[in-house]
Amino acid sequence: MSDTTSTQKFEYKAEMQQLLHLIINSLYTNQEIFLRELISNASDALNKARFQRLTDHSGEDSTEYKITITVDQDANTLSVEDTGVGMTRDDLIERLGTIASSGTLAFIEEQKASGKPMDAGMIGQFGVGFYSAFMVADQIRIETLHGGEDAEPMDWVSDGTGTYEITSGTRSEPGTKITLHLKEDAKEFSEEVRIRSIIRKYSNFVDFPIHLGEDQVNTLKALWKTRKDEVSDEERSEFYKFISGDYSEPLGHLHLQIEGLLSFDALLFIPSQAPYSFFREERRSDLHLYCSGVFVRDDAEELLPEYLNFVRGIVDTDDLPLNVSREVTQNSPVAKRIRSTLTGKILGLLSEWASDDIERYNTFFENFGPALKTGLFTGLDKRDDLLELMRYPSTSGEHVTSLEDYVTRMPDHQESIYFLLADSLESARKSPHLEVFSRKALEVLLLVDPIDALTLPNVEKYKDKTFTNVTSAELDLRDDSDIEPESIPGDEVDTLLTQFRVQLGDRVQDVVASKRLVDSAATLVTAKDAMDPQLERMMKSMNPEFEGAKKVLELNVDHPLMKNILALTSTNQDSLVNDTIEQVYEGALLLDGNLTEPSDFVSRMTRILVDVTAEPSPVS
Ligand code: ADP
Ligand code: MG
Predict the structure, then answer these.
(1) In 259-411, which ranges are E strands?
(2) CA-based, 20 to 30 A from 430: which of 41, 82, 394, 411?
């Protein structure tokens, strides 16, 4: 048997040490937030304990679920005690000793490097809330007993630098007591008045009584069950901060109190900015599910479609039993109905903003547009509503446009909504594909968000208008009036095309005379139904073996370069002709971002430059 009575010393992993160092040395503003973090952990532990006991049906539950805070000015300590689930020895090592999310450290360092003020309020989002206590403590002691059957009491002590120690402890009742020995400059946190005001500020909404001295400090008010008109903006915003760990104001909220066939209360928020991990990591939902007032889970993703998983808040229903697994809830008709109601209400709110509060809507869309866009292929039942909510940059100006506005601007003869996929607005605006559109004053949507390549091309229509990719080969936008009077005669065009076809071989599907180019010499287009270059590039980046469909090379036969090539051909300057053809082709690849091997391109260019920069040879 292992000896659990003696003290065992552990070293923090390097990453944790760095994090602790950052917490202790960089977070100066808003240090009081540490108390919110400890209370929120205590409340999580109490929720888990209550839920477990309510669902295992083992008779009467006599536990008094509460949080007790004690301060001692003489000893310079503060402690937070709960009667929750407690921690086992393994929990202490695994749950407390490691950073849950891999991006956390990098993100905090990024913030620090950016020179932005490091607000301690940020810490709650990172899953390292406990360690924020080291901002104010030079030593922390945890005494804990896990509620499980053969669990043994454990003590954990650390000064937050290199190591922590675990010893077997003496706690007799399940739960956890965390005692901070305060730093010299943090003595204020042993004053009862100060602590009371911090609790009121950040933790008023905790579901369990918080005792300090003789009194209960918090009001135990289930805000979502309170009548809407009795909830102040301030209360709501505090509540949002409390459940989300976000430190900024929410962008908006929905308070639903639904009664009838289905009954539930919900208080939902749309954050004003995406949490740091939102698009970096697998997103977990942040919707808290309560059943008949009892907390069940804080990640009830089954109650919202994935494209709305930026919405945070609480849903409380009497119609779901406490004791059901996630899988059962997922498929229950009740959950489905709640989900469909929530979806409708949220989309309704967004479309209200979109028409009446454009600035707010644009802020929303900048932050969560990419999430909403995923609904274009996952949320088919709401596709029409979602399309109305989309905003895209376009060639018509600096601002994003809705599809509705785009359609209103379309001239009568235009049948399609045109779009171009690109990496960035800058490269989009320079694309040769736009030339003919700009000449004809046709507006093109510029889709530069990576998710666009996966979503919009799969949408067939907006109202009765189809979507057309400007790179698709069947476009025929140039009419006769566009043909230059000086253009190459037809039979010479054939010679030119053949020349290119022979040189490029099966690297292209075909070479044709362009009907769309105005200033550029050449461009690659996709055959109808083939994959867009942008999408193809994404596929390649995921799978290097991926081979896209062959492209059609379109030549601008009115371009002076084409005449020059023909002239050179007739004087038998084969190597220069070949180099030029290669250069035209690879240049077009380069513009699409698909030139994988630039070295040939450059050496060929150098060869050509040597020719044109050479001293004119003396006439013999
Ligand atoms: P988070 O709360 O986001 O998980 P924390 O750093 O605040 O991150 O806490 C880390 C983990 O430590 C918690 O997930 C929980 O498992 C454990 N823990 C912290 N405080 C308590 C407590 N009072 N009772 C039980 N477990 C706790
Ligand atoms: Mg926490």
Answers:
(1) 264-270, 286-291, 294-297, 312-317
(2) 411
Q: How far is CA 207 from the centre of its chain?
A: 30
Q: 3-state DSSP call for residue 451?
A: coil
Q: Is 260 left (phi over 0), alpha (psi -120 to 50) or beta?
A: left
CA-nearest residue for atom 14, ligand 1, is 95
The conformational region for residue 441 under phi > 0 = left, psi -120 to 50 = alpha, else beta, is left
Q: Which residues contact 427 (CB under 8 A, 6 or more apart)?
A: 593
Closest CA to 514 of 481, 478, 486: 478
CA distance 169 to 600: 71
Pocket lining for ligand 1, CB < 6 angstroms: 37, 41-42, 45, 82, 84-87, 91, 95-96, 100, 127-130, 176
Tokens of 100: 């849950």
Alpha carbon 126 to its chain's center = 15
User: In this structure, which ligand is nearest to the CA of 125?
Assistant: 1
Q: What is the pLDDT of residues 359-372, one digit of tens each?
A: 999 999 999 999 99
- Calpha distance 421→591 (Å, rounded): 12
- Burial code (b: 16+ CB inside 10 Å, e: under 16) for 51-89 equals bebeeeeeeeeebebbbbbbbeeeebbbbbbbbbbbbbb
pLDDT tens for each residue of 288-310: 998 888 888 888 988 999 999 99
Is 0.85 surpassed by the pTM of this model? no
Q: Which two tokens stand for residue 168?
A: 């077997």
Q: Are residues 16 and 161 in contact, defined by beta-carbon separation less than 8 angstroms?
A: no
Residue nearest to atom 19 of ligand 1 (CA): 41
Within 10 angstroms of residue 460's Cβ, the number of other Cβ atoms is: 9
* Full 3-state SS string of 586-611: HHHHHHCCCCCCHHHHHHHHHHHHHH
Cβ neighbours for 453, distance < 8 A, ≥ 6 positions apart: 421, 447, 532, 534, 535, 538
Token output for 269: 């928020």
Q: Which ligand is nearest to the CA of 147?
A: 1
